[in-house]
Amino acid sequence: IEFSPADGSQPKSFSFDVIVIATGSKANRFPPVDFGLPGVYDSDTIWAIDRIPKHLVVQGAGIIGLEYALIFKKLGAESITIVEVFDKVVPMLDGALQDACKRTMTDVGIEFVMKTKFTKVESLSGSSPEDPKIRITLDSGRVLDCDTLLSATGRSGTTKGIGIENVEGLKTGRGGFIQVDDDCYTGVGQVYAVGDVVGGNLATIGQAQAVRAMRTVYGSGLVKKERGICAKPFGIWTIPEIAWAGITEEKAKEDGINFGTVTVDFSRSVRGCVSQEDGFLKLVYHAESGKLLGVHMFGENSCDLINFGAEAVCDGDTVYDVLQFVFPAVTYHELYYLAAWEAKQKIMHRGAKNLKAATTWQRVEIALQSYCSEQGKAVKDVLHVAFKYFDADSSGFITPDQLRQALQGLGMQISDADVTDMVVEATGSADDKNIEYEDFLGIFNVEVQRADAGPMPEASRVVGLQ
User: Fold this and answer.
1) Separation CA 420–CA 405 (nearest Å)
2) Does the structure show a pLDDT above 50 at 306?
3) How many other β-carbons are positioned within 10 Å of the β-carbon of residue 47?
4) Among 194, 176, 175, 177, which Cα is nearest to 185's?
């Protein structure tokens, strides 16, 4: 390797057995932003700012843009506007996290301008490094005046000007990131690359990559037998925090996976009741096996709590495995148990529109099964009699009031809203106000076909009433 020292002294050279490229990444700079203007920064230079912006414009709704926007808002910036060329914030996030992020940032006074480009950035008269005055013109015609512009439009690998173009076979991909395998090997000689220059993004990832690369070269060979992490946890340091591991709901749809989702608010846990913190945990799971596919969190300590979910996804755990884990009392980890339990119920009631309504209908079926077991009959053979019990006036359909009274007779006390949900669960439509016979049979997965069950007892005895 030959290089020129930064002090301007004579070029030097040295030889090596192994080299690791760890030159990091740099902020992207796109026109029409002039980074020579006072008050204009990118994600590499913003650390040098020595004042709190009064009026800040952020170009880009990615992780860096959102984090800095919230930092400066909390520090006292009067107005902050985020301008994004696309229609989503942090596009790799699950849709639920995107919505929650935008909502909470909007609530603190941060404005989002989506699907909009810059067309002009200029300094106004009297602008100086001590008192910047910047005008930004958007493609919509809107004009934004500010004293600080942060351009946060992504980062690219620092690969230019270091001579890698002279290394035959070494490849760079999108964003100038060096392409490597799972051991961070470039495929050329003994050249490895780690960290941001390969798209590692986080210091902890770069450190882990460097250790793996050196173990590959100088280790015993055991590293080749160790399973790599398939779902790395990621976090965004907004307030509250955002974290995720595994695939999003949108990715599951795109891949054609038979999946289910469940979302549990922080308020359902004991700690959430005490802390009153806003937040939620969302699971994406396989709708048949219950295997965890993705975990997404929004709220206090999410960047810590996500580690359990990431490990569960990597290990191929199911919601049933999570239910076997006993979490410490009064911790947000209880959310994992609550979400796994609800996912299990959804799997059991596959196709249900409302889990609580489906569970209540199941209790009715259990009452029927109990009677039929005593009488040696099949449930399907007594459903027409059970329908008569619910249809007290023999009108041919069950009204919400009749459903409520019948359930009360079974010892089930439910609200009017729950009754409405049960009707929708049976009919499949919010427009239907009553349950017809065919809908009633459908709840128990029985086709319209009255079997000759022989002499039947009174309807009240069929459902277990005296």
Assistant:
1) 13
2) yes
3) 7
4) 194
H or E segment and range at residue 304: helix 302-314
Instruction: Give the orientation angle of helix 383-390 with respect to helix 400-409, to 10 degrees.
Output: 110
Residues 21 and 191: beta-carbon distance below 8 Å: yes
Q: How far is CA 236 from the centre of its chain?
A: 12
Q: Could you report the per-residue pLDDT of 398-412, keeping only the tens digit for each?
A: 999 999 998 888 888
Both tokens assigned to 76: 């006292």
Over the chain, what is the mean pLDDT? 90
According to DSSP, the residues that pair with 253 across neighbouring strands are none
The pTM (predicted TM-score) of the whole model is 0.79
Compute the chain's Rg from CA coordinates.
31
Whether 433 has a pLDDT exceeding 50, the answer reads yes
Cα 36 to Cα 145, 287, 289, 339, 422, distances in angstroms: 17, 54, 57, 51, 65
Side-by-side strand order, sheet with 143-146: 118-123, 134-138, 143-146
Q: How far apart are CA 120 and CA 139, in angstroms?
A: 9
Q: Which helix (H) or strand (E) holds 40?
A: strand 40-42
pLDDT band, very low/low/confident/very high, at 229 (cuts 50, 70, 90): low
Do 233 and 244 touch, CB atoms closer than 8 A? Answer: yes
Residues listed for the chain: 466
| C-alpha of 431 from chain center | 33
Asked if 444 contacts 437 with a C-beta cutoff of 8 angstroms, the reply is no
Query: What is the C-alpha separation between 125 and 145, in angstroms, rounded?
Result: 12
